[in-house]
Amino acid sequence: MNFLPKIETHVDFVGQSLAEKIYWIVITSSAAGFALSCLLILPPWPYLRRHPIKWLKHQPAGGGNYKKKKN
């Protein structure tokens, strides 16, 4: 178990700096895209409400002539 000191532990500061820059670019662009999509989709904009759905009224399962039985 004494092989760990033999492993080369060279630290690439330039590569780490580049990886951190790429990380922050990806995180920032993802957050900006999420915020933009929320701004465009979540509010009830008029262009999204042009053709509202007309729902049917509730009908009992018996077809309409359904009467409750008295116990």
TrEMBL record:
<keyword id="KW-1133">Transmembrane helix</keyword>
<keyword id="KW-0256">Endoplasmic reticulum</keyword>
<dbReference type="InterPro" id="IPR009542">
    <property type="entry name" value="Spc1/SPCS1"/>
</dbReference>
<keyword id="KW-0812">Transmembrane</keyword>
<dbReference type="Pfam" id="PF06645">
    <property type="entry name" value="SPC12"/>
</dbReference>
<dbReference type="GO" id="GO:0045047">
    <property type="term" value="P:protein targeting to ER"/>
</dbReference>
<dbReference type="GO" id="GO:0005787">
    <property type="term" value="C:signal peptidase complex"/>
</dbReference>
<dbReference type="GO" id="GO:0006465">
    <property type="term" value="P:signal peptide processing"/>
</dbReference>
<protein>
    <recommendedName>
        <fullName>Signal peptidase complex subunit 1</fullName>
    </recommendedName>
</protein>
<comment type="function">
    <text>Component of the signal peptidase complex (SPC) which catalyzes the cleavage of N-terminal signal sequences from nascent proteins as they are translocated into the lumen of the endoplasmic reticulum. Dispensable for SPC enzymatic activity.</text>
</comment>
<comment type="similarity">
    <text>Belongs to the SPCS1 family.</text>
</comment>
<keyword id="KW-0472">Membrane</keyword>
<feature type="transmembrane region" description="Helical">
    <location>
        <begin position="22"/>
        <end position="42"/>
    </location>
</feature>
